[in-house]
Amino acid sequence: MDSVALDPAADLIEAGRTPVFELDGFNGPLGLLVTLARTRQIDLTRISLQDLVDQLAAALTQAMPLGEKGDWVVMATWLVLLRSRLLLPADLPAQEEAETQADRLRGRLVALHEMQALAAWLDRRPALGRDVFVRGQPELTGPCGEAQHTVDVIEFLWASLALFDDGEMPDTASLYRPLWLDLHSLPEARDRILLRLAESPEGQTLDRLLPPASSNVLRQRSAWASTFTASLELAKQGVVRLVQEGGFTPIQVNPAPA
Fold first, then answer.
1. What pTM was computed for the model?
2. Could you give all domains of the chain from N- to C-terminal order, each with its CATH number?
3. What share of the chain is helix, strand, coil (3-state, %, to 5)?
């Protein structure tokens, strides 16, 4: 049998990220070899088991995820079992049983191929809570539950006093100072909203009350957060009125009537 002609598109679809084998009568990825074996388009009796095992062992040394390597081992094992069944004596009872077991192994290869395709499809889908998020879910209200841990006050005091047993005072000079981030503050946002509304008595949408745009993503988020929080505080004090026509529509900020 001549070497099987490979179609690059078929390799990409059928083989995926399987290793490439160079065997007698076949030269291509392991996934394609499995596909040809389950569709009976290749003579497995000409495949050298030693070459198959040696090249699989070499492929397992690659830096690949352990799950993919496990799939390679399973696929190669089933190919070896399928080939061994086909090499049984040609007498009628044993040959029929070998054909039956070979068909069963081909069915398992088909099932493995379908499971791998489904797993790859699911892995490419956006995950809920990681890539996409549900909108409009009700907020959780009420008590957050009882504390899971209890502290023995007496033991806590004894442990605190034990710090002074060595005669040295604990270091209280060094204080923790959080990292300073140049973000927009709430008073600045409040003053900016009042100034813009004084210039535009008809009101403005919330996005027009933001400070000048910045290339810093964190400053952009702080601009939105401070402006929105300041508008809520002004609305609570009766200085402005917030109007929104519908869900996820622009928020209109209007001066409150006198």
1. 0.35
2. 8-124 (no CATH), 182-258 (1.10.10.580)
3. 50, 10, 40
> Which of the residue ranges 22-36, 128-142, 221-235 would you say has the lowest mean pLDDT?
128-142
**Window from 88-97, 170-179, 215-224 with minimum mean pLDDT:** 88-97
Q: How far apart are CA 232 and CA 230, in angstroms?
A: 5
What are 183's two structure tokens? 């973000």
* Sole residue written with tokens 């083989």: 15
Cα 158 from Cα 125, distance rounded (Å)? 55
Cβ(102)–Cβ(86) below 8 Å: yes
- CA triple 93-80-51, angle to 5 deg: 135
Phi and psi, residue 193, nearest 5°: -65, -45
pLDDT digits 0-9 by tens, 127-173: 877 787 777 666 556 665 555 667 788 888 887 777 766 666 656 66
Distant-in-sequence contacts of 218-223, Cβ < 8 A, 24+ apart: 218/181, 218/183, 219/182, 219/183, 219/184, 222/183, 222/184, 223/184, 223/189
Q: Measured between alpha carbons, how far is 114 from 112 in angstroms, rounded to an integer?
A: 5
For the chain, the straight-line distance linking the first and the last C-alpha, in angstroms and rounded, comes to 94
DSSP for 137-192 reads PPPP-S-----S----HHHHHHHHHGGGTTS-----S----PPP-----HHHHHHH
- For the stretch 49-97, pLDDT in tens is 777 778 878 877 777 776 677 777 777 777 777 776 666 655 556 666 6
Confidence of residue 14 (pLDDT cuts 50, 70, 90): very low
